[in-house]
Amino acid sequence: MSRFKLPPKGKKATKPEEAAPLSFDDIVDEAINMEEKGDRYVDGDKARRFYERSCELYAQAVAMNPEHDPLYNRGRLLLLLAEFRNPPYRPSECRGLLESSVNCLRRAAELEPTNTDTLFNLAQALRTSAEHLFSIDGQEPLAIAVAEEACALLEKVFALQSEAYQRNPVDSAGSEPQPGVSTQQLPQDGDKIEESLESVTAIQSVTKDTLIDTLVAWAETLSLRSSFCSDYASCMHFHSVAMEKLKLSEALGIEPARLSLRCADALSTLADTLASNEVEPTTAAEYFKQSLALVQRALEIEPSSVEALCDKGDILWSFLAFQIKYGGSEAEIRTAFADVVNSYTSAFQLESQNAEICAKLGDAQLYRILLYPSPEQQKTREVLVGNAILYYKRALAISETRIDAIRTCLHMGKAASQIPERDMECREAMIMWKKKGGKLVNGIFSGTDEDIPVDFSPATKASPWFQQLLVILQSV
């Protein structure tokens, strides 16, 4: 029997009414609704899809009426997506998101050149862009120019905020602004109230916390700028200015643990820069130690701070690489590795569903294999390989995002290849790596981390299945 019914005789079939096009206000309301849904999920595929949909709606709003608010909110959300970690975008996609974010926020800033929210977010987008650009060969001069523009914008933001704070000091933070609503200035004397009410959507006082947040962002951007320097004097100049901003935040009442972590971050960045440029290695070692002391101070204040524990592990890892490069003793290096693992393990015990920490634990076990090269140390190597594979499998089970999975599967394959009896696990890991989108780019496996200098074993490289994999990858 047919599922379709013919219209009664004598009557014409009617077409369904077309939905009326959405108005500008309707589109903005729906964009705000989508962002709020993304906020409820925080991260994951659903959150990202809601944020992406919100961006699309704001793009429609901008096309209808290119005013400040939709431009600002689209630029802000594009920056959020560029920095999204779970699931992350490809590096080329991140750069595209950042470029679009900067363009939107620039246009918004041209419409309201003293809107501190807009200028602050533009500075953050520029800072992240500079970080991406500096990793691309030949883009270093552009990265420096972009970072300096971000610093100049934050200087302007702080000046505007300081002026507003002096006019109306507020010691405690006010209510949080609603999504999709930007902070704007009060109407000036002589302005028409009716016109002002049409443009002002929310008012938020400048507090000490506001000033502190700007100073911290300014210090972080200056610290990034110092990492772009190749000579000692320039590096120290930008670092010193960054520390001045953090000192000023201390005068405004920044939380001691937060101050310690931000100062530790600035010092470890300086140490990394000096070490990578092979400038003042003795001084670099001292800065690493000072940085670790500051993180330890933060942990004494907040023993359960996952951020502090991860920062400690990251700094210890950088210091470890420094010791290996400059001939640290075998005992010192093994102790340092144990400290790295202990820091990440403590963090993982507090956040057992954190895939990033889990993957770091796998990396630490994988790197430690290099310390036990002799045949007599085979049992130790087997334990380390087993631990690494367990952590990588756990990381994949927690958050199997495509880009993270490519890296994790590759490292799992490299770990398994170190033990002949685990050849099948190595093969399975590489099959999974390829299914996740792994490729061979200029002879390098996608997902390769230069900070983990462990390669496939000679036996694995010579095996028929591995040679066949190379042929397939090279033919693509």
Protein architecture, described:
The chain is an all-alpha fold and about 475 residues long. Among the domains are: about 20-115, Serine Threonine Protein Phosphatase 5, Tetratricopeptide repeat (Alpha Horseshoe), CATH 1.25.40; about 255-350, Tetratricopeptide repeat domain (Serine Threonine Protein Phosphatase 5, Tetratricopeptide repeat, Alpha Horseshoe), CATH 1.25.40; about 380-475, no CATH class. Helices cover about 70% and strands about 0% of the residues. The chain is built from 19 helices and 2 strands. It has a two-stranded antiparallel sheet. Helix 8 (about 210-225) packs parallel to helix 10 (about 255-275) and helix 10 (about 255-275) packs parallel to helix 12. The longest helix is centred in the first third of the chain and has 28 residues, at about 140-165. It is globular and about 70 Å long. The model is unreliable at about 1-5 and about 175-205 (pLDDT under 50).
Helix segment tally: 19
* Helix share bin: 55-70%
Shape: globular
CATH topology-level name of one domain: Serine Threonine Protein Phosphatase 5, Tetratricopeptide repeat
Question: What is the CATH class of one domain?
Answer: Mainly Alpha
Using only C-alpha atoms, the radius of gyration works out to 27 Å
Instruction: Give me the CATH superfamily of one domain.
Output: Tetratricopeptide repeat domain
Q: Write out the strand line-up for the largest beta sheet, numbering strands in chain order.
A: 1-2
Under the CATH scheme, the architecture of one domain is: Alpha Horseshoe
Order of helices and strands: HHHHHHHHHHHHHHHHHEEHH
User: What's the total number of strands?
Assistant: 2
What structural class do helix, strand and pairing data support?
mainly alpha
Major sheet: size, sense and barrel closure? Answer: 2 strands, antiparallel
